[in-house]
């Protein structure tokens, strides 16, 4: 890869949700069936860690038993408890703890008690950091932020707390207020495939006809290679015809996410994070029609929007 910066690898756990119809989950691990030739492969906690050790990523994830965030009942309990058991197997299999940080993953669905139990068990293992998983899968935003908050209240404040699969800009800001430090998401590149660009004033879909004669940059405040080279009109003209439009918007959207996280970090360091949140939310919602869930979430940590 010749990538001189940090690398984080996932364990394969999410594929238990995305490829559920091709997966068989047991205590041993998860058996996947190829959609092409029907061949089977078994992914165990030990094999997942072995693969990640070989890749050499700086942060590696435990193999967890993942269920859809809207699942309820005994399956959620089973998945949470198995995640804890699999963590111990991952720790035992980890060959390079001195140079690769293994993060366990808090599970428990939308059940506050299960989330709490899982987090309390995980912190007994004294790992370098922790992840919050099993969210952002279609659940109500009110449930989403409460599960994040329950998790961050328990996880150590002196270690990284990684919220998996979250990438909407508003979610990044709100969840940073709730105590999360790290995120990953396909959203910036996935939405680029549909001709959508991310801005601090919201999203714009460049496939729309109104951009056909708009020769301004995608974002006048952005200095990425897309914004300094191409106009909105140009991307509009190729948005539904050429894959290069997806590439150009992916570059911008990732640059936007990096700028947003840099602003969050700087505002925290400078002691003005609440003011940044207020300014950001006002930019996104100039008529102050803030979503109720974000008002509730921010209010829980003492941030009132203006």
Quick summary of this structure?
By secondary structure, this protein is α/β, with parallel strands linked by helices. The chain is 42% helix and 12% strand.
Draw up the topology in text.
Blueprint: E1 8-9, H1 15-18, E2 23-25, E3 30-33, E4 40-43, H2 45-55, E5 59-61, H3 74-93, E6 101-103, E7 105-106, H4 112-122, E8 130-132, H5 141-154, E9 161-163, H6 169-177, E10 182-183, H7 187-192, E11 196-199, E12 202-205, H8 232-238, H9 244-269, H10 273-284, H11 292-300
Parallel strand pairs: 1-5, 5-6, 7-8, 8-9, 9-10
Antiparallel strand pairs: 2-3, 3-4, 11-12
Task: Explain what you see.
The chain is of the alpha/beta class. It is built from 11 helices and 12 strands. Strand 5, helix 3 (74-93) and strand 6 form a beta-alpha-beta unit. Helix 9 (244-269) packs antiparallel against helix 10 (273-284). The radius of gyration is 21 Å and the shape is globular. It starts with 7 loop residues before the first strand and ends in a 6-residue tail after the last helix.
> β content, as a range?
5-15%
Strand order of the largest sheet: 7-8-9-10
Helical stretch tally: 11
The biggest sheet amounts to: 4 strands, parallel
As a whole number of angstroms, the C-alpha radius of gyration is: 21 Å
Question: Which structural class do the helices and strands define?
Answer: alpha/beta
Low-confidence stretches: none
- Please give the alpha-carbon distance between the first and last residues: 46 Å
- Secondary structure: helix percent: 40-55%
* Mean pLDDT, all residues: 95
Shape: globular
The overall strand count is 12
């Amino acid at each position: 890869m010749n990538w001189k910066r940090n690398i984080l690898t996932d364990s394969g756990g999410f594929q238990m949700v995305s490829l559920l119809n091709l997966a068989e989950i047991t205590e041993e691990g998860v058996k996947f069936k190829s959609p092409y030739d029907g061949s089977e492969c078994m992914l165990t906690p030990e094999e997942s860690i072995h693969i990640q050790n070989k890749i050499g990523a700086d942060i590696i994830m435990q193999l967890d038993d993942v269920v859809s965030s809207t699942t309820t009942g005994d399956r959620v309990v089973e998945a949470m408890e198995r995640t804890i058991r699999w963590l111990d197997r991952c720790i035992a299999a980890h060959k390079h703890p001195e140079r690769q940080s293994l993060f366990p993953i808090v599970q428990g669905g939308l059940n506050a008690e299960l989330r709490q139990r899982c987090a309390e068990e995980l912190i007994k293992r004294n790992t370098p950091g922790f992840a919050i998983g099993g969210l952002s899968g279609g659940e109500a935003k009110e449930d989403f932020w409460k599960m994040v908050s329950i998790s961050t209240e328990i996880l150590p404040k002196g270690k990284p707390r990684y919220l998996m699969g979250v990438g909407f800009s508003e979610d990044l800001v709100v969840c940073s207020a709730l105590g999360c430090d790290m995120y990953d998401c396909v959203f910036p590149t996935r939405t680029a495939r549909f001709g959508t660009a991310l801005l601090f004033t919201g999203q714009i879909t460049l496939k729309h006809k109104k951009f056909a004669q708009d020769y301004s940059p995608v974002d006048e405040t952005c200095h990425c290679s897309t914004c300094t080279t191409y106009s909105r009109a140009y991307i509009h003209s190729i948005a539904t015809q050429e894959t290069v439009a997806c590439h150009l918007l992916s570059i911008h959207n990732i640059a936007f996410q990096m700028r947003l996280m840099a602003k969050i970090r700087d505002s925290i360091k400078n002691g003005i994070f609440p003011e940044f949140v207020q300014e950001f939310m006002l930019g996104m919602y100039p008529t102050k029609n803030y979503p109720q869930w974000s008002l509730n979430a921010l209010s829980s940590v003492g941030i009132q929007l203006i």
